[in-house]
Design goal:
alpha+beta; 5-stranded antiparallel β-sheet
Length: 251
């Protein structure tokens, strides 16, 4: 992977279309045979390149017209428009108990080339800039079964298929958790051992953000942070406890 210049999740600095990067991936050996084990890798980046190939347009344009505009996600971009430069949140790094602004651009451990980069590589797996408001609208669409404010972007059956476990017991990062089509999925609440509901789905971001959708509680949680590396903070666990505690207090 190193010789092919393909390492890590970060694509924003690449001055080549994502399809060219993915073409180089095709010549590399696989980590495992399909179905043999769960490998957290470039599947979504490859899917984004496939969308470009089939649709005949760059992924940014495809997502804008098919998802962002219909859902009113006006602040979601692969690269930040120049007029929004001053709205980009500062990224921090934690080290030895201290917080400091991360390097700019800094690549995978910094502010990233999301303003002054080449604006060429649209990574399906990582790279979108957004706001908590925009992403909450996307997740509300998922909770609603593919529709929001009269705009349908997915069928309800597509949402059902995306949010069930497809990998059996091969996803072994957390007990009781499987993986669907783009989301981790909670299959066994007791095996995980933290508050939530079976059928809950979500994921997280490289900059320590997290989100989840809990259909049983009609709940969407979006928690955006700008921290890499994190230095081992435990705010995600505290957030989950406080959210579910608040549900009881609201009854």
């Amino acid at each position: 992977m190193g010789e092919a210049d393909i390492q890590g999740w970060y694509f924003a600095h690449r001055d080549e279309p994502v399809r060219e990067t993915v073409r180089r991936m095709a010549a590399l050996p696989m980590d495992a045979q399909p179905g043999e084990r769960f490998v957290y890798g470039y599947a979504t980046d490859i899917l984004g390149a496939l969308v470009e190939e089939v649709s005949g347009e760059p992924l940014d344009g495809f997502l804008r017209t098919r998802i962002f505009e219909p859902l009113g996600m006006a602040d979601t971009h692969f690269y930040l428009p120049e007029e929004k430069r001053d709205r980009l949140s500062v990224v921090y790094s934690a080290s030895e108990g201290e917080l400091a602004p991360a390097p700019d651009p800094g690549g995978m451990v910094g502010q990233g080339a999301y303003v002054d980069g080449p604006r060429t590589s649209f990574s399906g797996g990582a790279g979108l800039l957004s706001t908590a408001h925009d992403y909450a609208r996307f997740l509300q669409m998922m909770l609603n079964g593919g529709e929001l404010d009269g705009a349908r972007v997915l069928s309800s059956k597509s949402v059902d298929l995306m949010t069930v476990n497809h990998v059996g017991d091969r996803f072994n990062w957390d007990g009781g958790v499987g993986f669907g089509l783009g989301f981790s999925v909670l299959a066994d609440l007791g095996a995980r051992g933290t508050p939530g509901s079976e059928g809950e789905y979500g994921w997280g971001g490289a900059y320590h953000s997290t989100y989840w959708v809990d259909p049983a509680e009609d709940l969407v949680v979006v928690y955006f942070t700008q921290l890499i590396p994190t230095g081992g903070v435990d705010d995600h666990a505290k957030l989950r406890t406080l959210v579910y505690q608040a549900l009881d207090e609201m009854q």
